[in-house]
């Protein structure tokens, strides 16, 4: 049974930082690219960042380039999203995707003063 469990939800002030984690199980983690998506209220779910199976290649949405960083530790079956210089428009539910078409349950990130 595939499971993707996100953690790291929180309320942060603008300019602050937060790190999300997604622990995977039920598939061979090291063989799959992993992604983070986000969905703000009333909006579609958008791709935030992707990392290749080895971690050698990363891609980011223009809106987060230079502020967010995706990484992974294959021995821990975990992918991370380090979010820096957070803005109110980063407020959303963040989802981990991997193992093909599997999704985590989502974790809330709120950026507000």
Report on the structure:
This protein has no helices and eleven strands. It has 113 residues and is mainly β. The termini are far apart. The strands form two sheets. Strands 2, 4, 5, 6, 9, 10 and 11 form a seven-stranded mixed β-sheet that branches. The mean pLDDT is 96.
How are the elements arranged and paired?
Layout: E1 3-7, E2 10-12, E3 18-25, E4 34-39, E5 45-51, E6 58-60, E7 68-73, E8 78-83, E9 92-98, E10 102-103, E11 107-111
Parallel strand pairs: 2-11
Antiparallel strand pairs: 1-3, 3-8, 4-5, 4-9, 5-6, 7-8, 9-10, 9-11
C-alpha termini separation = 40 Å
Mean pLDDT equals 96
**Largest beta-sheet characterization:** 7 strands, mixed
Q: Into which percentage range does the β-strand content fall?
A: over 45%
Which runs of at least 5 residues are low in confidence (pLDDT < 50)?
A: none
Rg of Cα set: 13 Å
Please tally the β strands and state the result. 11
Number of helices: 0
Structural class: mainly beta
SSE string: EEEEEEEEEEE
Shape: globular
Helix content: under 10%
């Amino acid at each position: 049974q595939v499971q993707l469990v996100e953690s790291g939800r929180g309320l942060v002030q603008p300019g602050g930082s937060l790190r999300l984690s997604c622990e995977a199980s039920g598939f061979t983690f090291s063989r799959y690219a992993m992604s983070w998506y986000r969905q703000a209220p009333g909006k579609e779910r958008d791709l935030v960042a992707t990392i290749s199976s080895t971690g050698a290649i990363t891609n980011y949405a223009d809106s987060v380039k230079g502020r967010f960083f995706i990484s992974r530790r294959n021995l821990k079956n975990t992918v991370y999203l380090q979010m820096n210089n957070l803005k109110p428009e980063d407020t959303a539910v963040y989802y981990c995707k991997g193992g093909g078409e599997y999704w985590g349950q989502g974790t809330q990130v709120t950026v507000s003063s």
